[in-house]
Amino acid sequence: DAGVTQSPTHLIKTRGQQVTLRCSPKSGHDTVSWYQQALGQGPQFIFQYYEEEERQRGNFPDRFSGHQFPNYSSELNVNALLLGDSALYLCASEAARSAVANTGELFFGEGSRLTVL
Amino acid sequence: RKEVEQDPGPFNVPEGATVAFNCTYSNSASQSFFWYRQDCRKEPKLLMSVYSSGNEDGRFTAQLNRASQYISLLIRDSKLSDSATYLCVVNDFGNEKLTFGTGTRLTIIP
User: Fold this and answer.
1) Which residues of chain A have a Cβ shorter than 8 Å from any chain B Cβ?
2) Sign of the dihedral defined by the CA atoms of residues B94, B32, A112, A96, in that order
């Protein structure tokens, strides 16, 4: 049973470029959330996708956008990259019926480490 | 004020010792509380939930004080494998997101 998989694992971009990160949720999970973890900080919620729609969004600018596909996989897009976007981007999945508020258990992928030069 | 605050440490503790971490949260309406563990350069993983009555899982004990809005984690008889960053996590009612603290870094010394 594959867990959450993310690609690419590492990438380097320059300021102003655009990046797309990909995530496949754990088998049986239909809800995907994206988190940004800067060095020395805890993960910060970017947004969550369920039924191919953005269900909730954190305090991130419109440069951050996403998509969920019918097979529940998801993409995170970041436009006009800034140096401050350098971080580990974590994808997390859950089954909607389990409700994170009840179980607290998000299954995270190993992340995509983005460096912006 | 940050929503969830933790002492970032580092805590350097000899093997076999007992260590405790505290965490405070700002939203009195928060309803669910958790501790996650994150090993170096790895993803966070759920360690345990925190219940109002306090709960124990082996060497780990978690407690919640709603009146003072703080959460604690106690690790007894610490092992080298306990070395990690421990993230305090809060979920607010009706909210899909988890709010993480900055994490407390623990190193167990042989």
Assistant:
1) 33, 35, 40-45, 48, 55-56, 58, 90, 100-106, 108-111
2) negative
Give B-chain residues touching A55 at CB under 8 angstroms. 96
- CB-nearest to B49 from A45, A104, A108 is A104
SS3 A101: helix
Q: What is the pLDDT of residues A21-76, one digit of tens each?
A: 999 999 989 999 999 999 999 999 999 999 999 999 999 999 999 999 999 999 99
Q: In chain B, which residue's Cα lies nearest the Cα of A111?
A: B43
Chain B residues within 8 A of A102 when measuring between CB atoms:
32
| B22-34 pLDDT, tens digit each | 999 999 888 889 9
Determine whether the interchain pair A101/B32 forms a contact, defined as Cβ–Cβ distance below 8 Å.
yes
SS (H, E, C) A41-84: CCCEEEEEEECCEEEEECCCCCCEEEEECCCCCEEEEECCCCHH
| HSE of B37, CA atoms in CB hemisphere, 13 A | 14
Among all chains, which residue has been given the structure tokens 């509380």?
B33
